[in-house]
Automatic annotation (TrEMBL):
<protein>
    <submittedName>
        <fullName>SDR family oxidoreductase</fullName>
    </submittedName>
</protein>
<dbReference type="InterPro" id="IPR002347">
    <property type="entry name" value="SDR_fam"/>
</dbReference>
<dbReference type="InterPro" id="IPR036291">
    <property type="entry name" value="NAD(P)-bd_dom_sf"/>
</dbReference>
<dbReference type="Pfam" id="PF00106">
    <property type="entry name" value="adh_short"/>
</dbReference>
<comment type="similarity">
    <text>Belongs to the short-chain dehydrogenases/reductases (SDR) family.</text>
</comment>
<keyword id="KW-0560">Oxidoreductase</keyword>
Amino acid sequence: MNKTALITGASSGIGEVFAHRLAAQGYRLILAARSQDTLERLARELAGRFAVEVQVITADLSLEHTPSEIFRQVQELGWHVDLLVNNAGFGLSGEFLSHSAEEYRQQIKLNVASLVDMTHLFLPPMLAKGDGAIINLASLLSFFPFPYCSVYSATKTFVLSFSESLWEEYRHQGIKVLALCPGPTDTQFFTKAKEVELDRKRSPEQVVDTALKALSQNKSFVIDGKLNVLNALLARLLPRKTMVSMLGSVMRKSLASRAKG
């Protein structure tokens, strides 16, 4: 029987590439995101191209009940999820007070709470089978505080720590847990986090290929791209105050340049 992968945030970017890569490997797919039309088009494309079964779940994971609703629908399908890809998330940039508290609550719910809930729901069936894998989308910003992207970088620090802890807790029981830490990537992320957009980005395909290779090696985390690896290493070598001051200076210059432009 083919294995099944559940991908959140599957309608575009990294999530969409995961869907293509896993379908090419013969996985049955469950695609979850808010955009039903986009998901259904992607499902038809993948089913036709790779001859795999694809199910669509329209869901807003920033809502508290959504992970339980996704789990219920998967149970009704009668499918066992072998690989969970917690990809859904978004970032906000700019000074902390430039966004409302409600916007930050939505970001924390999506980037942190829903990821924990999805993991808590889908991990027990994996343990019962003695086999399974979870990929959680962290970030290069998991490794250092990032001024003008403060809440986002904090949520991704949580994801990295959470994933590494689970890797150690469950690796002896047949479960792989990977924190995927991409740097700037050519996705729709920068539609909301436009203040931190850079010209030089990795592609979603590069990020997903890095993730799947690291998962096959049972790594607890992986950073995509050699330059990003060096940046994470630099963050660990420099005093935290020095690092955050450097990043703050860079961001202030970038914000000032965009304001003039």
